[in-house]
Design goal:
The protein has a six-stranded mixed sheet with strand order 4-3-2-5-7-6, with helices on both faces. Strands 9-12-16-15-18 form a five-stranded antiparallel sheet, with no helix packed on it. Strand 3, helix 5 and strand 4 form a beta-alpha-beta unit. The relative contact order is 0.13. It contains nine helices and 18 strands. The termini are far apart. The protein has two domains: 180 residues, P-loop containing nucleotide triphosphate hydrolases (Rossmann fold); 132 residues, no CATH class. The structure holds guanosine-5'-diphosphate. Guanosine-5'-diphosphate (GDP) binds next to helix 7. This is CP-type G domain-containing protein. GO terms for molecular function: GTP binding. It holds the Pfam family YqeH-like_C.
């Protein structure tokens, strides 16, 4: 039987078969005196954190050790996909430790976004998901916006204790930590501290000062994320990479909007009103009559209605439909991971999204 080898950085069991999973190292590195997993290797030599993902059960087992510690938990979410990035099991994972919620990718929202309102909304969204947060910070880890304010908040809430960084995959956790590392150590090599078998397995510790550390945890996979339902190629198109320009459609009832071929919104009943669409600028929006919408989809999915394209068509789950009656205040119809449509007035709509990705309503964000 082959002897089990452990990473000398984080203690995780080394494997040589799956480069995207925890503990990977190329076979050729096994002869080295110090064996490091790819993640620790990159951190040591390039000062760079890389995300790895795990199954729910493994993740839970591992990160639940946080509740036995006395630390600050920094929970990074993607403000473009809040429902896909809140972690329902977080209270069980972190116990009584305080949570600082960090809304990342602020550069995607229009500059006119009201920060105070957005923070309040994030706080209440977290509450609905079952946890109370100490405070909320808004940042762009790509641009570096809001990092100073966040660093100050971390100092206030951590009281010299360790800081655990948690988040689902793709929220920008690695980009965020890499920025923190640059900020604190500059270009010098980061030395990961030694591991404690059975407790911090797979966690990466980055010393903050003489006593406390910043601890990166693997990204949890949230099945609600659109990334699990579409191809990488299509994901690139639907994920915005710069400020979203809202697109406005004046619609009469019995009209339909297609968002590529990935989602669809039917205006069933109500007076003429404007539908303000917040999606990646690269995602094409197509307007048609409701009576023609099915035929359009059947005949033109993968061409006129794209993404998906002809090759990625087979990846896409069937679209499923939910009906919403919207009354009173301005409301966002949210297609998780894709974007949202902001509407007003007394209307009935039907929203279609890939099976597994649940459309929801919220009080208008902007
Ligand atoms: P992780 O899986 O949570 O570690 O996420 P990554 O750091 O790998 O980032 C996932 C994707 O989000 C990458 O394409 C990043 O470039 C992008 N990203 C990360 N932070 C930001 C941000 O502040 N703004 C924008 N627009 N994109 C970001």
């Amino acid at each position: 039987m082959q002897e089990e080898i452990y990473c000398q950085g984080c203690g995780v069991s080394i494997q040589t078969s799956d480069p995207d999973s925890l503990g990977y190292t190329p076979k050729s590195s096994l002869d080295r005196e110090t064996v490091l997993c790819k993640r620790c290797f990159r951190l040591k030599h390039y000062n760079e954190i890389q995300d790895v993902s795990m199954t729910d059960d493994d993740y839970l087992k591992m990160v639940s050790t946080i509740r036995d510690t006395d630390a600050l938990v920094v929970h990074v979410i993607d403000i473009f996909d809040v429902s896909g990035s809140l972690i329902k099991s977080l209270p069980r994972i972190v116990g009584n430790n305080p949570i600082l919620l960090v809304g990342n990718k602020m550069d995607l929202l229009p500059k006119s976004t009201n920060h105070r309102k957005l923070k309040q909304w994030l706080r209440s969204s977290a509450k609905e998901a079952g946890y109370k947060v100490k405070d909320v910070a808004l940042i762009s880890s790509v641009k570096g916006h809001g990092m100073e304010e966040l660093t100050e908040l971390m100092e206030i809430y951590r009281y010299n204790k360790d800081v655990y960084i948690v988040g689902t995959t793709n929220v920008g956790k690695s980009t965020f930590i890499n920025r923190l590392i640059k900020q604190s150590v500059g270009e010098s090599d980061v030395i990961t501290t030694s591991y404690f078998p059975g407790t911090t397995l797979g966690f990466i510790e980055i010393p903050l000062d003489g006593e406390a550390s910043l601890i990166d945890t693997p990204g949890i996979v949230n099945k609600e994320q659109i990334a699990h339902y579409i191809s990488d190629h299509d994901l690139k198109i639907v994920t915005p990479n710069k400020e979203i320009k809202p697109r406005i459609y004046q619609l009469n009832d019995q009209q339909t909007l297609y968002f590529g071929g990935l989602a669809r919104l039917d205006f069933i009943k109500g007076n003429k009103t404007s539908f303000v669409c917040y999606f990646s600028n690269q995602l094409s929006i197509h307007r048609t009559k409701l009576e023609k919408a099915d035929a359009l989809y059947d005949n033109h999915l993968g061409e006129l209605l794209s993404p998906p394209n002809e090759e990625t068509l087979n990846h896409l789950p069937k679209l499923t439909k939910s009906t919403f009656r919207i009354t009173g205040e301005r409301t966002d119809i949210v297609f998780p991971g894709l974007g949202w449509v902001s509407v007003d007035g007394d209307i009935t709509v039907e929203a279609h999204s890939p099976k597994g990705v649940h459309v929801s309503l919220r009080k208008s964000l902007l």
